[in-house]
Amino acid sequence: MGLKSWRIYKKQQQFSPGVLGLINNPFFAARRGLFTAIKVLAAHLSGKVLDVGCGQKPYAELFANTEYIGMEIDTEENRQNKRADQFYDGHTFPFVSNTFEGVICNQVFEHVFNPQEFMAEICRVLKPGGILLLTVPFVWDEHEQPWDYARYTSNGISHILEQNNFEIIEQRKSTTGIKAIFQLINAYLYKITRAKIAFFRLKHIGMLLFPFVNIAGEVASILLPDNQDIYLDNVILARKTSHE
Known about the structure:
alpha/beta; seven-stranded mixed sheet; 8 helices; 23% strand
C-alpha cells in the first residue's frame, strides 16, 4: 500500500472504521454503528439525492449509484473547508419544490435552531414518495458549541417527522446498551486529553487508552444483555407522503 493509499485508508477509518479504527478511533463504536445502519438503508435511495449538511461527504461512496449533491449552510468556513456543491442561507434551500427523490441528513438536526422550518424545507424539495434518511443523536456530549441545540428521543424525532408529512418506514437505535457507555468513556477521554489546560493536553495518553476502551466495549457488549433504552443515535428512514 502506497503512502497516498494509506492516507485514504486512514481517513476512511474515521467514519467507516474497521480494525485500524478499533485501535486509533476514539469514536469507533458510534461511527461503526452509524456506518452499518446507513449502509443498509442507503439502498432505499435512488435518483437525485441531496445530502443536507454534507461536511466532507463521508458516506458519499454508499450513494455512488445516485446523482449525489452535497449542501452546507453558507459560511466562509464551510466554503473553505467543506465539500459542498451548493450552499444555503440557513432558511431556504436553493432548489425548487419536488426536486429530489432522496434526502440524507446525517448528524445535523441537533445543530438546527429552527427545526420545524428546516424539516419543512426537506419536505418541500423532496418529491411525493421521496425518501429521507435521517440520523440524529440522543445521548451525546455537547459538541460544536455554541451550535448544539437539542437531543431527540426516538419518539420525539418520529413525531416531528410525522408533523411534517413523513411516514416512518424504518427506525433504528444505533450503538446501544453497554457499548454506548464505553463510547461515552472514550468521548470523555478524548476531550480531557485535548483540553486547553496544559496539564491535561496529553494526546498520546489518549491514543494509548482509546483502543483498550474500544475493545472492552466490544467484549462487554457480547457478554452482557443489551438495553435499547440506552443508545447514542437515532437512524430513521421515512417517506414523504403525497399530501402536504
